């Protein structure tokens, strides 16, 4: 075994790699000495990276929260007793829950999966560190979907997360637990990741605000990557005004001359809102009642001093089509082939995280969720069949889509459309069958995933109800106008619609959650 901890390669290893790539086995067999030199180099790199490393911080007191009276919706994963390094910044004394796909020092980071049940990060993610510096109290971690491969809330290895308005229905995902904990007042902020709508889906279905900021303004370091050009850190809050302290604490300022607080303080009279025609009336998916509530809310912006008109982004209708090859082929590379690291980028990289995930894949591939298996197999077959050509086409169409959105946002200041085209669906009794046989894990992505492709800030705003279940209106702005969206949302909340808190769970309501296994 070399200093890198890699056993010497056997003739069987060499024969296997020759067969995998269609190479001459005799040639590969003669490469042993050169491969040994490579292994030695790997050992030297390991030594360089680990020498002089800071000692591990002291352990953190964490408590697993079982489903029960204190966790009736199944939203909590761990509670944390960690005073941290609370400052006196914009989040002083505010409580935060963190999606379990984002590192919190000393707290198991399971990714909603059996695969990573034993992984405990030794340091905070960048966003958690910045929130601590701003005075926030990290209260614990929230349940997410298994490897984040669902926009609903029934695939987590920890069990389903019930909607706070009706526990028999989905809360939305994959940041499901974070939305529920904010909606029910158990935390001031919920931090999540958003790859195709994973913050805004549950925000819309749980009746809270959910912001996917402008791409890159919140550092992604320390969160599970799925496809680096789609991945965003987002936030959930009960009020629109609470979005600004988060941005002040966690995000890079939009310009060198203006803070988010300054942008929020600007008036909104005279802004132009464009009702995005292609965001409504999705064939076979839109609920006309949702379209109606969002449409009425969009035109109600005139009462706030905005002018409202209809605009068009023709490629919006194909956003989900474009998202698929980019997300699954990028996920094949990032999640599975490079063990959550990705390749050929400037960072961040997390060696221990990647090693833990790689060992888990080798040890128990049967624990890959069925949604992950679908993505892994589909991406492998389709990439091999097309040699990556269709993914490259998708990237070209993506650029055209971004240009169309930018063009629309030169005509108006913000776009308005439904965040999710339908109300929350019932939690399925058989999640495995639901993933294999239905579109339940992804039916809600049509509108939200477009703005992961384009990187524009997008904010889900509670705007009404259908059958007693919340509806979200999506506001989309130019890059860097996150605070302006928050101000429009705050005025809407103050003068048009303020979502009430959900009713408290009835005694025994936790028993209404379906008893299901995770979706594998």
Automatic annotation (TrEMBL):
<dbReference type="InterPro" id="IPR020556">
    <property type="entry name" value="Amidase_CS"/>
</dbReference>
<feature type="region of interest" description="Disordered">
    <location>
        <begin position="500"/>
        <end position="520"/>
    </location>
</feature>
<dbReference type="InterPro" id="IPR036928">
    <property type="entry name" value="AS_sf"/>
</dbReference>
<protein>
    <submittedName>
        <fullName>Amidase</fullName>
        <ecNumber>3.5.1.4</ecNumber>
    </submittedName>
</protein>
<dbReference type="Pfam" id="PF01425">
    <property type="entry name" value="Amidase"/>
</dbReference>
<dbReference type="InterPro" id="IPR000120">
    <property type="entry name" value="Amidase"/>
</dbReference>
<keyword id="KW-0378">Hydrolase</keyword>
<dbReference type="InterPro" id="IPR023631">
    <property type="entry name" value="Amidase_dom"/>
</dbReference>
<feature type="domain" description="Amidase">
    <location>
        <begin position="86"/>
        <end position="485"/>
    </location>
</feature>
<dbReference type="GO" id="GO:0004040">
    <property type="term" value="F:amidase activity"/>
</dbReference>
């Amino acid at each position: 075994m070399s200093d890198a901890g890699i056993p010497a390669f056997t003739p069987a290893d060499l024969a296997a790699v020759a067969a995998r790539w269609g190479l001459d086995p005799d040639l590969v067999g003669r490469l042993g000495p050169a491969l040994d030199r490579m292994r030695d180099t790997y050992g030297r790199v390991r030594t360089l990276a680990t020498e002089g490393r800071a000692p591990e911080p002291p352990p953190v007191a964490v408590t697993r929260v079982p489903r029960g009276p204190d966790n009736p919706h199944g939203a909590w994963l761990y509670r944390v007793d960690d005073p941290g390094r609370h400052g006196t910044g914009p989040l002083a004394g505010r409580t935060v829950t963190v999606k379990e796909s984002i590192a919190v020092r000393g707290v198991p980071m399971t990714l909603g999966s059996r695969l990573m049940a034993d992984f405990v990060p030794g340091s905070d993610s960048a966003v958690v560190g910045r929130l601590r510096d701003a005075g926030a109290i990290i209260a614990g971690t929230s349940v997410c979907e298994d490897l984040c491969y669902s926009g609903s809330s029934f695939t987590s290895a920890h069990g389903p997360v019930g909607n706070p308005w009706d526990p028999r229905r989905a809360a939305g995902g994959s940041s499901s637990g974070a939305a529920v904990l904010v909606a029910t007042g158990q935390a001031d902020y919920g931090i999540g990741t958003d790859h195709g709508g994973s913050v805004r889906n549950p925000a819309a279905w749980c009746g809270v605000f959910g912001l996917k900021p402008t791409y890159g303004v919140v550092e992604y370091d320390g969160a599970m990557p799925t496809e680096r050009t789609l991945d965003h850190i987002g936030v959930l809050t009960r009020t629109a005004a609470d979005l600004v302290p988060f941005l002040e604490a966690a995000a890079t300022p939009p310009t060198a001359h203006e803070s988010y607080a300054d942008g929020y303080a600007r008036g909104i009279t005279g802004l132009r809102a464009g009702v995005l025609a292609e965001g409504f009336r999705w064939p076979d998916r839109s609920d006309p009642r949702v379209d109606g509530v969002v449409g009425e809310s969009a035109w109600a912006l005139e009462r706030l001093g905005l002018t409202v008109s209809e605009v068009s982004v023709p490629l919006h209708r194909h956003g989900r089509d474009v998202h698929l090859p980019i997300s699954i082929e990028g996920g094949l590379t990032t999640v599975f082939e490079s063990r959550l690291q990705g390749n050929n980028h400037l960072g961040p990289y997390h060696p221990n995280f990647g090693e833990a995930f790689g060992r888990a894949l080798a040890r128990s591939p049967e624990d890959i969720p069925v949604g992950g298996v679908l993505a892994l197999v589909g991406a492998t077959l389709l990439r091999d069949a097309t040699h990556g050509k269709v993914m490259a086409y998708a990237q070209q169409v993506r650029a055209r889509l971004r240009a169309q959105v930018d063009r629309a946002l030169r005509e108006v200041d913000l776009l308005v459309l439904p965040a999710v085209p339908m109300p929350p669906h019932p939690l399925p009794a058989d999640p495995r069958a639901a993933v294999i046989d239905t579109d339940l894990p992804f039916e809600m992505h049509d509108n939200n995933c477009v703005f992961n492709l384009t990187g524009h800030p997008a904010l889900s705003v509670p705007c009404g109800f259908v059958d007693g279940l919340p509806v979200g209106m999506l506001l989309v702005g130019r890059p860097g106008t996150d605070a302006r969206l928050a101000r429009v949302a705050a005025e809407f909340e103050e003068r048009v619609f303020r979502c009430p808190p959900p009713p408290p769970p009835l005694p025994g309501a936790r028993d209404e959650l379906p008893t299901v296994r995770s979706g594998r």
